[in-house]
Give the backbone structure.
Amino acid sequence: MRKDIKDLKKFKGNEHGGLYGLFPIDRKKAVKDIPKLETHEVNVVAKFYRDGKKELRVVLCRVDELPDFNGDNQGNFIIDEIRNAKDAAVLEDKLSKTGGERTVSDLIKVYKEKRVVSFKDAWTPSQQLLRWENELGHILLDELDAAQITAAKNILLEGRSPKTVNNYLSALSSCFDYAIKHLHWINANPVKNVAKDKVNNEIDRYMTDEERNRFFEGLESTKSPTLKVLCHFGINTGCRKGEALGITWDDIDFEKNTISFTKAKRVRTCTGFDEKGGMTFERNKVTPTLKNGSKLKVISMKHLGSLRTLLLEHKLRSTSEYLFPQDTQHSFRYLLKKCNINNFRFHDLRHTCASYLVQSGVPLLEAAHHLGQKDYNSVLRYAHLAEDTTEKTGSIVAARIYGNQ
């Protein structure tokens, strides 16, 4: 019986032994969850078999990219995609290789196709792994050792911060862990024997009162129509930049005095692979979850009177459903230079908010709640700023920034 593959509500499960199947893009969800998902959240995946046993899955497209149902056209489209999947033969051949024949490049390509493609931030690890592949890709897995990785690290990451170096090593280490646990290609992870750089994880870059006064004064003369409101919004709420850019006016309730964070705009979101096997990305896509995986974070504006006034004024001028329809990074950098504020990023407004809270005596758990942090260890970075007094988060931030309102 012919069926509309886009009608996910009627999806009963994948056919055992079929040429293709449907699988959620989000790895935390299972096939059984598909009837509850939207078409852009599900991939059409080709299934290749060897000796009737080994299965290799290759993403063909998202369900929403299929043609509208008309007879057999959806099935024919998928069959054509399978035939045109140039990597299918290459990937199938990898399964027949022995451990001594597989290279680092083989592993990285499979890891990207199996795991990285589903990461919320797939761009960063894809670029990190690409640099490792360029340096180590030709080496056989059985021959790679910690000394070779260390030598490559010294070449690739010279002059970079200890945190950046460790992030690159973690990306490569996760790739080898996947080879051990899921592919069974190797028995040990050589990255485990590479020394990581010591990182001081304490947050020490936030705006001093004197810097903030200069910064706010500069905001009054900016030509950007949204930079002033965006910066005040960031320093008051402590939100991530992507969360601010994802906010719509429907998320602001001026009667209840609440700001609801329900989505985030991501600089790059992975959409799959091109015909050459490279990962493809969509820029500035708004996704329905926050960076930490939460679906909702609410900030009260009860004690954020100055911010509330700015938002009301901004709404009168706004012609977009989004509070901040464009990223103002160039205007932000220009303003910092003009105000003589060095070594500062927009994300440091979040650190500034957190630092003001902790310095004013707010317990770390309350500060974490204000920032929307799930991981308690993340807020421990501000522990060295803590004092003994406690107050409500919104009023303290506002008092520190604007004085008594």
